[in-house]
Amino acid sequence: MPTILYPTRGGRSSYPNQERVFTLAREKGANLLLLYVSNVEFLGMVARAKVVDLEEQLDNMGEFLLAMAQERAAQAGVKAEMLVRRGEFRQVLSEVVAEYTVDTVVLGAPSEKTGLTTLDFMRTLCAELSAETGVPFLLVQDGEIVETFTPGEDARQNVEEPRSDTGV
Amino acid sequence: MKPFRILTILTLWILALALWGAQTPPVRAADPHGFAYTLGGQVSDPQGQPIEDAHIALYRGHDTQPIAETESLSDGTWQISLSEIPSGELHLHVSRAHYQEQDIPINGALVQEWRASGSYVMEALTLERRVTSGFWAATVVFLGVLLLIAFEKLHSTTAALTGASLIFLVSYFGSAWISPNLYIITFERALEYINWEVILLVMAMMIMIAIIEDTGIFQWLAFQSYRISRGRAWMLALILMALTAVASALLDNFTTMLLMTPISLQIGVALGINPLALIIPEVLASNVGGISTLVGTPTNILIGAYADIGFTDFLNYETGGVLMALVVMGAFVLYHYREEWHKAGNTLSPALYKRLQENARIEDPQALAKALTVFTLVMVGFVIGEHVGAPPAVPALIGASALLIWLKPDVHHMIKAVDWTTLVFFMALFIVVGAVQEVGLISVVAVAMSNAVGTNLPLATFAVLFGAGTFSVFIANIPLTASMLPIVEFLTGNIPGANSKVLYYALSMGAAMGGNGTLIGGEANLVTAGITAQTDSPITFKEFIKIGLPITYLTLVVGYLWLLIRF
């Protein structure tokens, strides 16, 4: 059975993209591998000792957010596994693709209203990772597939132009 | 018991006893036995502030060697003792770095009176300030440190350490090789500006916080708030605000937000609302809640140690204002997020509810009970300590060592939990601020501010409160408070009625409330934003400022009204 890897940060604004991934999984008869990646590099911004094991707190939070997504997947008739990892997102994603037998990776582009990354950044990330891992990447935003990235193919296939005025 | 643990506990006890002992100032008056004649007086600056370490030498005629010499004490007083008064013309030479020297002849009538009575107190001497190259060098270094911290060009500790190093470089090598006028401060004098009470209190509190917060109490309380609110998001927001305000008053808002943010995010997502409607009010409340106690904010610790304001003083004079500010803040939060409250619904399955409960469990109930017992005793110690002359650092150090003995945590972990970076930052900052005090920059600013507000106490209170509040929006409030303390001291000494210390309370409120203005206003804000960036509900600069800035000025107005009522 094919496996779709879907990194997510949970929450209400991720729901449209999650729905799209569930539909894809159903269409392909695939299992879902839900991934949450935490990164505590931001603590370097502050000059305080790290009394609290924040990574453990974030692991708990990630597991909870993924458990919510897992329940939603089950309701949509899709079997989903959860994976919580720590580190820099790009590197972790690359490692997980290499570690698991992944057939497709779906990345959700965050809303342009609230997201901290741009769609262009996500496009570049997908293209690079697809070439690096040899796995096709799908970029989704607002529940629609924005672009597909197939390894070895220079041309990208635009499926739908993103709607810039709506949030996820 | 491991030797390392014994050593740590012993060190803490010795530090506590040393600190207590240090409270009794050493008597520097000369022993009068054996001296038949004493001459004394007082040295102050043009604003009437006493000058310490002024060199006073008594000369006869054109002699190059003084007959006797001494240095003024911290209250500006000095005393010269002689076994006999020499004949001939006498004169006093008074000198002090960064002040103009004075030569005062001692006339025959004065000598006669001195000889007749055995002791004579001269009229108070006033030394005029002298603006030297050292003044400008210290000013440039001080402003440079503030700018480096404000624009985050260097880590705040690195910036302060660099500033302190430059002060010494200019003082020693610059004054030796380039011009003596570059002299700023001696190393020994700079060390006197380091407030060890602050350093030790912060250190002891860090150890206790590390032990208490490891127990999971705050996550558990957040989950209980969720249960009590029964899906009513507006009520949950208010309960969480109250919880973080109290936690920040007793502990530390930075660590409190580290613990509260992940669990609050989960609760917000579980309720189906934007989690920021819970988290931003929490961080705003945490910045204000700390104002009401001595240990609630690092700035209060600084102010308390500098102005001798105790634990009960902060409670008595600021809690009312904090409560009023929290009520106004709560009302604004309810209005600002009014659309979110309608979205709330209890969507959690039993399995997810159980998982959330698991994430919010108390890790070690026994450790929690012990930690809370000791912490309560420390709070009582703060109050009792005021009656026996023990500074707050003493009960805090005793409490920290008691917890280390009773709970036997991993001492290496506890010592790592001490925020040495901040402590070093404090020490270096004290030196830099001490340098600009020494050269007279603080006096210049204080005089300018005093001229602006005159003797109008309400106006001065307004200026300090809103000035500190506005500056804290953009720059870190610790260096701001450290720089403003000598100014507030000056104003307190010159404005009638200000000896109630109202201006210090205004500084305490302003520095903390201003931290709510922007995302960069406080470290708790930054770390909370960092955690929310791990989800699809990140706090952006714009999002924060939309609620933070109005709340800053609303709470400043409330704080001002409170101070007017209370004083």
List keywords for this structure.
heterodimer, A: 168 residues, alpha/beta, Rossmann fold, seven-stranded mixed sheet, 37% helix, globular, disordered C terminus, B: 567 residues, Immunoglobulin-like, 3 domains, four-stranded mixed sheet, four-stranded antiparallel sheet, 24 helices, elongated
Compose a concise summary of this entry.
The complex is a heterodimer of chains A (168) and B (567). Chain A has 168 residues and is α/β, with parallel strands linked by helices.
Map the helices and strands.
The complex is a heterodimer of chains A (168) and B (567).
Chain A: E1 3-7, H1 15-28, E2 31-38, H2 54-75, E3 80-86, H3 89-99, E4 104-108, H4 119-133, E5 137-141, E6 144-149, E7 157-158
Chain B: H1 3-21, E1 37-44, E2 55-60, E3 68-71, E4 77-82, E5 90-95, E6 102-106, H2 108-117, E7 119-121, E8 125-126, H3 133-150, H4 156-177, H5 187-192, H6 196-213, H7 217-229, H8 233-250, H9 253-271, H10 276-289, H11 298-307, H12 311-336, H13 338-343, H14 350-359, H15 365-388, H16 393-407, H17 411-417, H18 420-439, H19 441-453, H20 457-474, H21 477-494, H22 502-513, H23 523-532, H24 541-566
Helix pairs in contact in B: 1-16, 3-4, 3-18, 4-18, 6-11, 6-16, 7-8, 7-9, 8-9, 8-10, 8-12, 9-10, 9-23, 10-12, 10-23, 11-21, 11-22, 12-24, 15-16, 18-21, 19-21, 20-21, 20-22, 20-24, 21-22, 22-24
How would you portray this structure in words?
The complex is a heterodimer of chains A (168) and B (567). Chain A is an alpha/beta fold. Chain A is built from four helices and seven strands; from the N terminus they run βαβαβαβαβββ. Chain A is globular. Residues 158-168 of chain A have low confidence and may be disordered. Chain B is an alpha/beta fold and 567 residues long. In chain B, strands 1, 4, 7 and 8 form a four-stranded mixed beta sheet that branches. Chain B has a four-stranded antiparallel beta sheet with strand order 3-2-5-6. Classes of the chains: A alpha/beta (168), B alpha/beta (567). The A-B interface holds A 9-14, 38-40, 42-43, 45-49, 51-52, 54, 57-58, 60-65, 67-68, 71, 110-111, 114-116, 168 and B 155-157, 206, 209-210, 213-214, 254-255, 258-259, 262-263, 265-266, 269-270, 272, 274-275, 349, 351-352, 355-356, 359, 416-422, 425, 523, 526-527, 529-531, 533-538, 540, 543.
